[in-house]
Amino acid sequence: MYEQIDSYVLSLIERSTPQCTAWNVEKIRQGKPADWNYIDGCMMTALLAMTEITGDERYAAFAEQVIDSFVTEDGGILTYKPDAHSLDDINEGRVLFKLYAKTGKEKYRKAARFLKGQLEVQPRTPEGNFWHKQIYPNQVWLDGIYMAQPFSALYEKHFGNQDYSDVLGQIETVHARMRDEKTGLYYHGYDPTRSIFWADPETGCSKNFWLRSIGWFAVALADLAEILPEGDARMRLCAVFTDLMQHVRAFADPDTGLYWQVVDKGGEEGNYLESSGSAMLAYAMLKGARLGVLPKEYAVSGQKTFNGIVDRYLSFDDGKMELGGICLVAGLGPDNNRRRDGSYAYYISEPVVKNDAKGVAPFVLCYTEVKRLSASL
Fold it and tell me: Which residue of 140, 144, 161, 352 has the lowest C-beta tally within 10 Å?
């Protein structure tokens, strides 16, 4: 089975160009041209990890080809929209550090500096957290922690002053404001001004625990645990990470190890075991155990979840692999889109698709951790 997964990832590359990637189902459905976006960014991160663990340069070569199609010699990024102030558009920049180390191309360092400059002017909430986007004023989404904070920490590590206080401060605000005391889970969004229609008037949080948003947050914490050096900041970050993993693991489906689209409402009508968020949590558990942040038993849980995804949602027809059970997209608002209200009915109404990078990339990342685990045994 694992050899088939290797072949599948290579087939995705073979069927893709920088102008049209086979895994960006959302972009294909919309009929929009290629641009700099977090979906392809997730996959580029996964491809670089595949080269790192397998030694096969074809994965990294395609990632470099994609990034080169957008990054100009002066460090500009084609199609990037500065005025959108979108944290999503920071995410793809995290691959610049590995590509710079690998190739020495100066334009990668310049592009990283450009994106760091964007974060320096990113609007912030009164509590100091980044707005998710310009169109979401004063809103903090769990997704945004993954989109911006690993990049920010990597910049500090490679080109900055190794000051991680802002990264940690934003995460600890999320922990203080968005964590539910009863379950230990995190709400998808938070508005400290309580002015957006989906925000609870008492807490400012959205209504439910969306799996993939918690998955994004977990992956960010796992990646930051690897980036940050030993010290107080890493210790405090790992405390947040450990607490989340301890609580979310209790909501796994006992038979498959997968997690529900709305995490705490397993088995309710319309809810389903979702693959992208499950892969993210499995990745975080496997990586956390490998780093020694989580007990070794979490690697067993992560492996079970990965195997559950393979058994339930991975299929091979005529040599072609398909990964199903992926929520295509979910969000909150903006004000003129009241359907995206954070309700249970909303989260279970979004399309479920196959082979989208928001599921494929976490699955491949999780697979690299499974391969690391196998190599260590």
Answer: 161
pTM over 0.90: yes
- 143 catalytic? Reply is yes
CA distance 349 to 343: 10
| Residue-range definition of the domain harbouring residue 302 | 2-376
Which residue is listed with tokens 């990034």? 67
Please tell me the number of Cα atoms within 13 Å of 58 on its side-chain side. 11
CA dist 373 and 53 (Å) reads 11
Q: Is the pLDDT of residue 107 over 80?
A: yes
Q: Which of 332, 331, 329, 333 is nearest to 352 (CA)?
A: 329
- Measured CA to CA, the distance from residue 124 to residue 164 in angstroms comes to 17
CATH code for position 143: 1.50.10.10
Going by C-alpha positions, the residue among 146, 168, 144 that lies closest to residue 156 is 168
Considering the candidates 143, 191, 223, 356, report the single residue annotated as catalytic.
Answer: 143
Is it true that the peptide bond before 192 is cis, omega within 30 degrees of 0? Answer: no
d(CA 70, CA 18): 9
Angle between helices 275-291 and 232-248 in degrees, nearest 10: 130
Q: What is the mean pLDDT of residues 331-340?
A: 97
Distance of CA 147 to the CA centre of its chain: 7
What are the residues facing 186 on neighbouring strands?
A: 179
- 239 close to 225: Cβ distance less than 8 angstroms: no
